């Protein structure tokens, strides 16, 4: 059995100094300047590739592994944060609003992450809503993080081989599949990219020759750290990690960080100011936790913080196992508490405490192993459930914390390979013999395993149907998984699936199961309410949606839109039983006023309000709301179809036809029933003797202004 010691420190690279000492001659020992050899653009046969070429080749391999994501759709929270987020649209985005309490009052998605919101607004204007383009952007962000990791390791004096090995481990780590595959989770990628850039600039600031240059670099590090934490607070522990680098000194480059303690303190303080600015923005917007102090979705608010922290010890030991051996990855985990005296909790707590004590004990003999453990624990603090989170566990939480572990793993695997190479037969020496690759065998096996598991795991996120089927299978006790699976099946029934009775029964089973698993969760109520709409049971639909609004603390625009429309369909007997609610009209308008004031950027709510006022006989107000809905989400075919119907009802055949022709691409996504109904009505309108084709072509249409 071969014993392999943990690497003592980061392997240091040759600094490339042109100064060498002469061995002979009268001035033996005097420095002699040897001119550097300029690398050729094209290496000769047998000459190794340059470091840059090898890094680009490695990044190309990582991109190739993730290329299948380009065929995936927009899923999960992509609709809430990107597709239906009207605040991102041209003419709606206001940085001042985003940095004020109005952001929370107007329910802007991800209001406490201004960097992410600004990035999404820019990407939406450049890329539109093409899923392949946004997945390509996520892959590009991941490659950027890999490149920045290589640059940071170079700044810390790590040799080329371990540098590339670390990038390979991180770039193909299987636990990153969720963060890269889901567009709305690119907050982790963005925070990591900006955070690593802040670390690189911070190192430059510490090593700067002059104080003025140090202050300039430090100010840039402050800004990058503030932007990183503005994308996600997972970057908040980076100042503490920089201190750990200077304390443990796992490499010669790291030793330079501690030479000037005053400079180090200054730079760490500036990074801390960046973190404080991001926390201040969160406090200004929400006045506390961004998830609400009474949010029932946070388990700690139901059972207390103690059981949640006890369960968190097992969660973090599970993260370690998933990073080393990628088994048990899942798109969904069930939140549950634990007792501190349970055997599993005791074992997990002992494991974490043992890792900390061992890291401190071996900090001089194996500083790299010590740094990897302590830096990982520090990076896990923002998602360690010390502050209540809607999800106690998620694979994406390990994106940035996995960086120090990947560096240590890569160097350990290279060391193992060198040991194994000593026991393997050497190839016969020959001019044609290539380099001995046996030293990289353990690393290659690890990277191949991680890449294969990551590629398989990413297939879960190809569509919402696939996602929630798999989530319900892997986490059968998750109310969210079953509720969203039920909503997906309700959508299949609405689309007129041939197996509608069976699908409807399966949808009801999923909704009921979700309700049994969590009676005070809004999603099962929305699931049952949507099913009742399909069955035209207006009373049940109204009651389930009203219960969902009562239970939820945010994202209520769609249930409020449903309630406003359902109010017009409730029977008179129901109003007789609830005289305090008035009549249909007043109840519907009350819901609309509540919704439009709280969710001014919701396209679905504005479109629903247009339909309500259309039914109430107020076409001018309906047209105004349709146009507002169209500006908030131009790709939504339901709004365009409603505008065409309104024009036909008003007798404006010219506007209806112009919109039908000019918006053919958008209306091409409409369901067949809607297209057939509009086509028949337009055909009837063309039989009118007053209809003029030329007039229709010159008419501005229902939506005269480009959204």
Automatic annotation (TrEMBL):
<feature type="transmembrane region" description="Helical">
    <location>
        <begin position="55"/>
        <end position="74"/>
    </location>
</feature>
<feature type="transmembrane region" description="Helical">
    <location>
        <begin position="345"/>
        <end position="362"/>
    </location>
</feature>
<keyword id="KW-0677">Repeat</keyword>
<feature type="transmembrane region" description="Helical">
    <location>
        <begin position="132"/>
        <end position="152"/>
    </location>
</feature>
<keyword id="KW-0472">Membrane</keyword>
<feature type="transmembrane region" description="Helical">
    <location>
        <begin position="399"/>
        <end position="417"/>
    </location>
</feature>
<keyword id="KW-0812">Transmembrane</keyword>
<feature type="repeat" description="TPR">
    <location>
        <begin position="603"/>
        <end position="636"/>
    </location>
</feature>
<keyword id="KW-0802">TPR repeat</keyword>
<feature type="transmembrane region" description="Helical">
    <location>
        <begin position="264"/>
        <end position="284"/>
    </location>
</feature>
<feature type="transmembrane region" description="Helical">
    <location>
        <begin position="164"/>
        <end position="183"/>
    </location>
</feature>
<feature type="transmembrane region" description="Helical">
    <location>
        <begin position="189"/>
        <end position="206"/>
    </location>
</feature>
<dbReference type="InterPro" id="IPR011990">
    <property type="entry name" value="TPR-like_helical_dom_sf"/>
</dbReference>
<feature type="transmembrane region" description="Helical">
    <location>
        <begin position="369"/>
        <end position="387"/>
    </location>
</feature>
<feature type="region of interest" description="Disordered">
    <location>
        <begin position="1"/>
        <end position="45"/>
    </location>
</feature>
<dbReference type="InterPro" id="IPR019734">
    <property type="entry name" value="TPR_rpt"/>
</dbReference>
<dbReference type="InterPro" id="IPR052346">
    <property type="entry name" value="O-mannosyl-transferase_TMTC"/>
</dbReference>
<protein>
    <submittedName>
        <fullName>Uncharacterized protein</fullName>
    </submittedName>
</protein>
<keyword id="KW-1133">Transmembrane helix</keyword>
């Amino acid at each position: 059995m071969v014993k392999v010691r943990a690497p003592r420190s980061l392997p240091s690279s040759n600094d490339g100094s042109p100064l060498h000492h002469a061995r002979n001659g009268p001035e033996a020992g005097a420095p002699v300047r040897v001119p550097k050899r300029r690398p050729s653009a094209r290496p000769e046969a047998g000459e190794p590739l340059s470091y840059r070429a090898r890094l680009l080749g490695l990044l190309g391999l990582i991109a190739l592994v993730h290329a299948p994501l380009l065929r995936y759709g927009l899923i999960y929270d992509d609709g809430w944060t990107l597709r239906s987020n009207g605040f991102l649209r041209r003419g709606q985005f206001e940085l001042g609003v985003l940095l004020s309490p109005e952001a929370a009052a107007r329910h802007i998605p991800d209001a406490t992450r201004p960097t992410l919101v600004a990035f999404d607004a820019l990407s939406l204007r450049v890329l539109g809503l093409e899923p392949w383009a946004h997945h390509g952007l996520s892959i590009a962000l991941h490659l950027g993080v890999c490149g920045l990791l290589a640059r940071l390791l170079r700044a810390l004096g790590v040799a080329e081989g371990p540098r590339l090995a670390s990038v390979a481990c991180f770039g193909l780590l299987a636990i990153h599949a969720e963060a890269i595959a889901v567009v709305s989770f690119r907050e982790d990628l963005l925070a990591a990219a900006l955070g690593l850039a802040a670390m690189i600039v911070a190192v430059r600031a510490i090593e700067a020759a002059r104080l003025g240059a140090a202050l300039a670099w430090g100010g840039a590090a402050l800004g990058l750290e503030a932007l990183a934490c503005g994308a996600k607070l997972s970057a908040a522990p980076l100042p503490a990690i920089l201190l750990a680098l200077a304390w443990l000194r796992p490499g010669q480059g790291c030793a330079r960080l501690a030479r000037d303690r005053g400079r180090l303190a200054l730079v760490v303080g500036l990074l801390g100011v960046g973190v404080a600015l991001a926390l201040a923005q969160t406090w200004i917007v929400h006045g506390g936790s961004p998830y609400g102090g009474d949010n029932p979705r946070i388990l700690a608010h139901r059972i207390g913080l103690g059981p949640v922290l006890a369960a968190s010890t097992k969660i973090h030991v599970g993260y370690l196992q998933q990073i080393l051996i990628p088994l048990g990855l899942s798109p969904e985990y069930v939140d549950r508490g634990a007792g501190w005296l349970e055997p599993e909790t005791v074992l997990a707590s002992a494991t974490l405490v043992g890792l900390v004590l061992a890291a401190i004990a071996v900090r001089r003999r194996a500083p790299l192993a010590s740094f990897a453990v302590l830096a990982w624990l520090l990076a896990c603090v923002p998602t360690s459930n010390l502050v209540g989170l809607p999800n106690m566990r998620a694979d994406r939480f390990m994106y940035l914390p996995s960086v120090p572990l990947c560096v240590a793993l890569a160097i350990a695997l290279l060391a193992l390979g060198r040991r194994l190479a000593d026991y393997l037969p050497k190839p016969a020496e020959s001019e044609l013999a290539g380099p001995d690759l046996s030293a990289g065998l353990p690393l290659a096996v690890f990277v191949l395993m991680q890449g294969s598991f990551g590629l398989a795991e990413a297939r879960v996120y190809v569509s919402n149907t696939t996602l929630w089927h798999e989530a319900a299978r892997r986490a059968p006790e998750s109310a969210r998984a079953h509720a969203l699976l039920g909503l997906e099946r309700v959508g299949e029934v609405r689309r007129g699936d041939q197996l509608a009775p069976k699908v409807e029964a399966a949808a009801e089973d999923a909704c009921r199961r979700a309700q049994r698993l969590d009676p005070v969760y809004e999603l099962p109520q929305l699931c049952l309410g949507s099913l009742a709409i399909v069955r035209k049971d207006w009373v049940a639909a109204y009651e389930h949606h009203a219960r969902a609004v009562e239970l939820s603390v945010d994202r209520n625009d769609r249930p409020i839109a449903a309630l406003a429309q359902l109010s017009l369909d409730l029977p008179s007997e129901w109003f007789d039983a609830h005289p305090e609610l008035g009549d249909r009209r007043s109840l519907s308008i009350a819901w609309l006023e509540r919704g439009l004031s709280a969710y001014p950027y919701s396209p679905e709510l504005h479109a629903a309000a247009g339909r309500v006022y259309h039914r109430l006989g107020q076409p001018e107000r309906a047209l105004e709301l349709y146009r507002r809905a169209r500006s908030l989400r131009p790709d939504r075919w339901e709004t365009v179809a409603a505008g065409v119907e309104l024009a036909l009802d008003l007798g404006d055949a010219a506007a209806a036809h112009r919109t039908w022709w000019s918006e053919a691409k958008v209306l091409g996504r409409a369901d067949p029933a809607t297209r057939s109904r509009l086509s028949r009505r337009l055909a009837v309108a063309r039989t009118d003797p007053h209809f003029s084709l030329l007039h229709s072509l010159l008419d501005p249409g229902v939506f005269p202004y480009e959204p």
